[in-house]
Design goal:
By secondary structure, the chain is α+β, with helices and mostly antiparallel strands. Helix content is 40%, strand content 19%. The protein contains 10 helices and 9 strands. The strands form 3 sheets. A 4-stranded mixed sheet has the order 3-4-5-6, with helices on both faces. Strands 8-7-9 form a 3-stranded antiparallel sheet. A two-stranded antiparallel sheet has the order 1-2. Helix 2 crosses helix 6 and helix 6 crosses helix 8 (197-209). The radius of gyration is 24 Å and the shape is elongated.
Length: 296
């Protein structure tokens, strides 16, 4: 192995630890900016993460590609993605809700900007592909892509969509878990990530299944199983460890989350949290017969 100084101009290949993307960069530039992966970094919106994962997946088919692409320096206008395929130049815009209604900018201003960018692309002989991402939901965005030129070019299979979605969501799930383990409630996490509370709940549940966070293991070395419908009393506390109530069965907690918070949970996770003492959806749970908050 060769050693290089942190100020070296040597171009080497880096692998993102979160999404697995491979990209080449000067060591000096990497040290200056640390690890801002262009495919999954926190500053990249979820729709753009989907686009970048598609480009990454099919990059060998492309002559060239780029992101936050500016086709005319004077205008200052950037497009979410650019690629060249079989001699044809394509621009891609992943349009969020602000392109269809008043949001953080007025719809009128945004519409004027969209028209300008469309006419500029046509003037400079670029093919513009626009994807409606106003829902912010992967399944809806996937359907919009299916009905677009992107699907015609890349012929994305359902299995490939699943892989793309998993990688695009991976950092959001990890962020959700990091905040969740710090005791933040779903609404606080949702506000910070720009998603709704139910989406955060799904991220928390899917964290284990996607391997984003370690699986919760029991003392015996196995994942919790067994009959969770049996009578096992569980004490519930709020985020400040104030007592809330006692449930007679673990399955009643699952029903409570669904009815009171609109969240779909898994009994097995509740049982794990009763044992490891970590907060679950902003609450703490302990088996009544071993509750550390109750003096013996």
């Amino acid at each position: 192995a060769k050693n290089y100084s942190y100020g070296s101009n040597k171009i080497v290949e880096f692998i993102c630890p979160d999404c697995g993307a491979k990209f080449k960069k000067k060591i000096k530039d990497f040290m200056d900016s640390r690890f801002p992966c262009q495919f999954c970094a926190d500053g990249v919106s979820f729709p753009n993460k989907i686009l970048r994962q598609i480009i990454l997946k099919f990059q060998n088919k492309l002559d060239e590609y780029d992101f936050e692409y500016r086709i005319e320096k004077e205008s200052g206008k950037r497009y979410d993605g650019y690629f060249k395929y079989k001699g044809q130049k394509y621009l891609v815009e992943m349009n969020g809700e602000q392109h269809y209604k008043d949001a953080w900018t007025s719809y009128k201003t945004q519409k004027e900007n969209d028209i300008f960018k469309k006419e500029l692309a046509q003037k400079l002989n670029y093919n513009l592909i626009t994807i409606d991402c106003s829902s912010g939901d992967f399944e809806n965005i996937k359907q919009q892509i299916r009905n677009s030129k992107l699907q015609y070019i890349f012929k994305i299979t359902e299995e490939e969509y699943l892989e793309i979605g998993k990688k695009a969501e991976r950092t959001l799930i990890k962020q959700s878990w990091d905040m969740y383990l710090q005791g933040e409630k779903y609404k606080e996490i949702a506000d910070k990530l720009g998603v709704n509370r139910i989406t955060v709940g799904n991220y928390i549940i899917r964290g284990e299944d996607l391997g984003v966070i370690p699986k919760l293991i029991t003392a015996s070395g196995h994942r919790t199983g067994g009959n969770l419908n049996r009578r096992v009393r569980v004490n519930m506390y709020d985020s400040k460890k104030n007592f809330v109530c006692t449930f007679d069965k673990i399955i009643e907690i699952e029903k409570w989350f669904k009815e009171e918070m609109g969240l779909i949970t898994k009994n097995v996770y509740i049982s794990n949290h009763c044992k490891n003492g970590l907060p679950y959806h902003g609450y703490y749970f302990y088996f009544a017969d071993s509750d550390p908050n109750i003096q013996k």
